[in-house]
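Input sequence (193 aa), recorded before submission:
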Amino acid sequence: MSEDELLKKYNALYLEMIMRYREKIEEGERLYMAELPKLVTPSDETVVAAANKIKGEFLSYNFDTDFPEAMRKAYAFVSSSISQVSPPIEFWLRPNQVLGIGAGDVFDQAVLLCSILIGLGNLSAKVVVSVKNETEKDYAVYCEFGGKILAVEIGKGMSELKDKNELLAKIGVFMGSETTVYEFNDKMYDSLA
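Predicted structure, token format:
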């Protein structure tokens, strides 16, 4: 049996085990919304290393002048280095795990990007999540800079917006819509709608 065939058999076995114990695993993975800040870890050594690598791409990184370009580089890093995969169960990964594995779902990528942006010096960075129904979710990472909002929609790109209302409209949240919206970073959690 070739190494690839053996790996496929192991993967099938692992998937079978995961699916058998899915309920127990997901039960242990439940987080209250207010616990989401625990997932944003800008001080983790692997996140610090990623932020420092981005800072190292500048002659002498200066937050006031270089942050917007550093944010673009951070988004490019997350997009190119982290394969987007969705496990068959709900499972939380911390940024160091996402970096170590090189994969995560859209939520994991957003949390990693937020952690890196804080590591680059923007303490206002937050993940914002819009939930329209159980299966339709939108994720963005945004921060304030120079009186504007810099936002990244994972998989869609970066934009500069005038305010948070424009960001919410961009991710499909409209006045009177039946949408749950919340935001968080390493220091806070807030329900917006």
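Checked by second reader. The first strand starts at residue 83 and ends at 84.
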